[in-house]
Protein backbone atom coordinates (compact mmCIF):
# COMPACT_ATOMS: atom_id res chain seq x y z
CA UNK A 1 0.00 0.00 0.00
CA UNK A 2 2.84 2.41 0.84
CA UNK A 3 4.57 1.87 -2.51
CA UNK A 4 1.22 2.34 -4.24
CA UNK A 5 0.72 5.61 -2.37
CA UNK A 6 4.03 6.87 -3.82
CA UNK A 7 3.08 6.03 -7.40
CA UNK A 8 2.29 8.72 -9.99
CA UNK A 9 -1.46 8.19 -9.70
CA UNK A 10 -1.34 9.06 -6.00
CA UNK A 11 1.32 11.80 -6.22
CA UNK A 12 -0.91 14.82 -5.36
CA UNK A 13 -2.26 13.02 -2.33
CA UNK A 14 1.16 11.95 -1.13
CA UNK A 15 2.32 15.57 -1.35
CA UNK A 16 -0.82 16.75 0.43
CA UNK A 17 -0.25 14.24 3.20
CA UNK A 18 3.39 15.31 3.59
CA UNK A 19 2.39 19.00 3.81
CA UNK A 20 -0.27 18.14 6.36
CA UNK A 21 2.32 16.37 8.53
CA UNK A 22 4.68 19.33 8.15
CA UNK A 23 2.01 21.78 9.33
CA UNK A 24 1.26 19.52 12.27
CA UNK A 25 4.93 19.56 13.25
CA UNK A 26 5.04 23.36 13.00
CA UNK A 27 2.07 23.64 15.35
CA UNK A 28 3.49 20.97 17.65
CA UNK A 29 6.74 22.85 18.23
CA UNK A 30 4.74 25.95 19.08
CA UNK A 31 5.47 28.40 16.30
CA UNK A 32 1.86 29.53 16.56
CA UNK A 33 1.37 30.30 12.87
CA UNK A 34 -2.22 29.14 12.99
CA UNK A 35 -3.40 32.32 14.65
CA UNK A 36 -3.70 34.56 11.64
CA UNK A 37 -5.94 37.58 11.51
CA UNK A 38 -8.50 37.15 8.72
CA UNK A 39 -10.73 40.04 9.67
CA UNK A 40 -9.45 42.74 7.31
CA UNK A 41 -12.28 44.41 5.39
CA UNK A 42 -13.95 41.25 4.10
CA UNK A 43 -17.38 42.07 5.50
CA UNK A 44 -17.85 45.09 3.27
CA UNK A 45 -18.30 43.25 0.00
CA UNK A 46 -20.03 40.08 1.17
CA UNK A 47 -17.03 37.77 1.30
CA UNK A 48 -17.70 37.00 4.96
CA UNK A 49 -20.53 34.69 3.89
CA UNK A 50 -18.11 32.67 1.78
CA UNK A 51 -15.66 32.45 4.69
CA UNK A 52 -18.46 31.26 6.97
CA UNK A 53 -19.39 28.59 4.43
CA UNK A 54 -15.76 27.47 4.20
CA UNK A 55 -15.52 27.27 7.97
CA UNK A 56 -13.23 30.29 8.27
CA UNK A 57 -15.74 32.78 9.61
CA UNK A 58 -15.40 31.78 13.25
CA UNK A 59 -12.56 31.28 15.70
CA UNK A 60 -10.89 28.31 13.99
CA UNK A 61 -7.14 28.91 13.50
CA UNK A 62 -6.18 29.04 9.83
CA UNK A 63 -3.61 26.24 10.02
CA UNK A 64 -6.06 23.88 11.71
CA UNK A 65 -8.48 24.65 8.87
CA UNK A 66 -5.75 24.07 6.29
CA UNK A 67 -4.68 20.82 7.94
CA UNK A 68 -8.28 19.64 7.85
CA UNK A 69 -8.56 20.58 4.16
CA UNK A 70 -5.38 18.69 3.28
CA UNK A 71 -6.58 15.66 5.21
CA UNK A 72 -9.97 15.68 3.47
CA UNK A 73 -8.29 16.16 0.08
CA UNK A 74 -5.94 13.24 0.73
CA UNK A 75 -8.68 10.89 1.93
CA UNK A 76 -10.99 11.82 -0.94
CA UNK A 77 -8.22 11.31 -3.50
CA UNK A 78 -7.16 7.94 -2.15
CA UNK A 79 -10.80 6.84 -2.02
CA UNK A 80 -11.35 7.89 -5.64
CA UNK A 81 -8.29 5.99 -6.83
CA UNK A 82 -9.09 2.89 -4.76
CA UNK A 83 -12.68 2.75 -5.99
CA UNK A 84 -11.62 3.34 -9.60
CA UNK A 85 -8.95 0.65 -9.35
CA UNK A 86 -11.42 -1.80 -7.83
CA UNK A 87 -13.92 -1.18 -10.64
CA UNK A 88 -11.60 -0.87 -13.63
CA UNK A 89 -8.38 -2.50 -12.53
CA UNK A 90 -6.33 0.72 -12.72
CA UNK A 91 -6.48 4.17 -11.13
CA UNK A 92 -7.35 7.20 -13.24
CA UNK A 93 -4.84 9.89 -14.20
CA UNK A 94 -3.85 12.02 -11.24
CA UNK A 95 -5.12 15.35 -12.69
CA UNK A 96 -8.65 13.92 -12.91
CA UNK A 97 -8.38 12.33 -9.48
CA UNK A 98 -7.02 15.55 -7.97
CA UNK A 99 -9.85 17.61 -9.48
CA UNK A 100 -12.47 15.30 -8.07
CA UNK A 101 -10.70 15.12 -4.71
CA UNK A 102 -10.52 18.92 -4.52
CA UNK A 103 -14.30 19.19 -4.93
CA UNK A 104 -15.14 16.35 -2.57
CA UNK A 105 -12.43 17.30 -0.09
CA UNK A 106 -13.64 20.90 -0.03
CA UNK A 107 -17.19 19.80 0.71
CA UNK A 108 -16.07 17.39 3.42
CA UNK A 109 -13.80 20.05 4.91
CA UNK A 110 -16.69 22.48 5.21
CA UNK A 111 -18.42 20.00 7.49
CA UNK A 112 -15.21 19.14 9.32
CA UNK A 113 -14.16 22.77 9.88
CA UNK A 114 -17.59 23.81 11.13
CA UNK A 115 -17.60 20.77 13.40
CA UNK A 116 -14.17 21.63 14.79
CA UNK A 117 -15.26 25.22 15.39
CA UNK A 118 -18.21 23.93 17.42
CA UNK A 119 -16.04 21.78 19.69
CA UNK A 120 -13.49 24.55 20.20
CA UNK A 121 -15.67 27.26 21.79
CA UNK A 122 -13.01 28.16 24.30
CA UNK A 123 -10.36 29.05 21.76
CA UNK A 124 -8.94 32.51 22.35
CA UNK A 125 -6.57 34.23 19.99
CA UNK A 126 -4.06 36.87 21.01
CA UNK A 127 -4.04 38.19 17.47
CA UNK A 128 -5.46 41.70 17.27
CA UNK A 129 -6.29 44.08 14.48
CA UNK A 130 -4.10 47.15 14.03
CA UNK A 131 -7.12 49.29 14.86
CA UNK A 132 -7.33 47.61 18.27
CA UNK A 133 -4.29 49.67 19.27
CA UNK A 134 -6.36 52.85 18.99
CA UNK A 135 -7.41 54.38 22.32
CA UNK A 136 -4.53 52.57 24.01
CA UNK A 137 -1.69 54.26 25.82
CA UNK A 138 1.86 54.05 24.54
CA UNK A 139 5.27 55.17 25.75
CA UNK A 140 7.70 57.03 23.50
CA UNK A 141 10.93 55.05 23.56
CA UNK A 142 13.43 57.24 21.77
CA UNK A 143 13.62 60.58 20.04
CA UNK A 144 11.08 63.37 19.98
CA UNK A 145 7.95 62.88 17.93
CA UNK A 146 6.99 65.76 15.65
CA UNK A 147 4.60 66.05 12.73
CA UNK A 148 6.36 64.40 9.81
CA UNK A 149 9.06 62.97 12.11
CA UNK A 150 7.58 60.04 14.04
CA UNK A 151 9.20 58.46 17.08
CA UNK A 152 9.25 54.82 18.06
CA UNK A 153 6.80 53.91 20.80
CA UNK A 154 5.75 50.84 22.75
CA UNK A 155 2.12 49.93 23.38
CA UNK A 156 0.88 46.92 25.36
CA UNK A 157 -2.38 45.39 24.11
CA UNK A 158 -5.16 43.88 26.19
CA UNK A 159 -3.42 40.49 26.09
CA UNK A 160 -0.28 41.93 27.62
CA UNK A 161 1.75 41.69 24.41
CA UNK A 162 4.00 44.58 23.40
CA UNK A 163 3.82 46.25 19.99
CA UNK A 164 6.31 48.77 18.62
CA UNK A 165 4.84 51.50 16.46
CA UNK A 166 5.68 54.87 14.93
CA UNK A 167 3.92 57.79 16.57
CA UNK A 168 3.42 61.43 15.58
CA UNK A 169 1.64 64.15 17.57
CA UNK A 170 -2.04 64.58 16.75
CA UNK A 171 -1.60 68.35 16.78
CA UNK A 172 0.34 69.83 13.89
CA UNK A 173 2.57 71.93 16.13
CA UNK A 174 2.83 69.40 18.94
CA UNK A 175 5.91 67.53 20.14
CA UNK A 176 6.19 64.43 22.32
CA UNK A 177 9.46 63.76 24.11
CA UNK A 178 11.10 60.44 24.87
CA UNK A 179 9.63 58.78 27.96
CA UNK A 180 6.24 60.49 27.69
CA UNK A 181 3.01 58.50 27.81
CA UNK A 182 0.47 59.18 25.09
CA UNK A 183 -3.04 58.20 24.09
CA UNK A 184 -3.27 56.84 20.54
CA UNK A 185 -6.21 58.55 18.84
CA UNK A 186 -5.94 57.68 15.15
CA UNK A 187 -3.76 56.10 12.50
CA UNK A 188 -2.88 56.55 8.86
CA UNK A 189 -1.50 53.33 7.43
CA UNK A 190 1.34 52.16 9.67
CA UNK A 191 1.68 55.57 11.35
CA UNK A 192 -0.18 56.41 14.56
CA UNK A 193 -1.12 59.80 15.95
CA UNK A 194 -1.36 60.46 19.65
CA UNK A 195 -2.05 63.04 22.33
CA UNK A 196 0.39 63.29 25.24
CA UNK A 197 -1.07 62.56 28.67
CA UNK A 198 -0.06 66.08 29.66
CA UNK A 199 -2.72 67.40 27.25
CA UNK A 200 -5.41 69.15 29.30
CA UNK A 201 -8.12 67.33 27.32
CA UNK A 202 -6.94 64.05 28.79
CA UNK A 203 -6.73 65.06 32.43
CA UNK A 204 -10.04 63.38 33.25
CA UNK A 205 -9.51 60.31 31.03
Automatic annotation (TrEMBL):
Keywords on record: Membrane, Transmembrane, Transmembrane helix
Q: Which InterPro entries match?
A: YqiJ_N (IPR048376), YqiJ_OB (IPR010840)
Which intervals hold domain Inner membrane protein YqiJ N-terminal? 11-104
Q: Does the keyword Transmembrane helix apply?
A: yes
Pfam families named among the record's database cross-references: YqiJ_N, YqiJ_OB
Q: Is Membrane one of the keywords UniProt gives this record?
A: yes
The source's domain of life comes to Bacteria
Domain Inner membrane protein YqiJ OB-fold stretches: 136-194
Q: Where are the transmembrane segments?
A: 9-31, 62-80, 92-112
Q: State the name under which the record lists this protein.
A: DUF1449 family protein
Source species taxonomy: Bacteria, Pseudomonadati, Pseudomonadota, Alphaproteobacteria, Sphingomonadales
Amino acid sequence: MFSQFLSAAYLPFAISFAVMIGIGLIEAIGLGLGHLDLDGDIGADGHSGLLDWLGLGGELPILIWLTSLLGCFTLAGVAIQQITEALHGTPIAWPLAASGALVLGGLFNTLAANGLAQIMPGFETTVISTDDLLRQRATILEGTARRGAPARAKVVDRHGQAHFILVEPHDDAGTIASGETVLIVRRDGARFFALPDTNTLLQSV
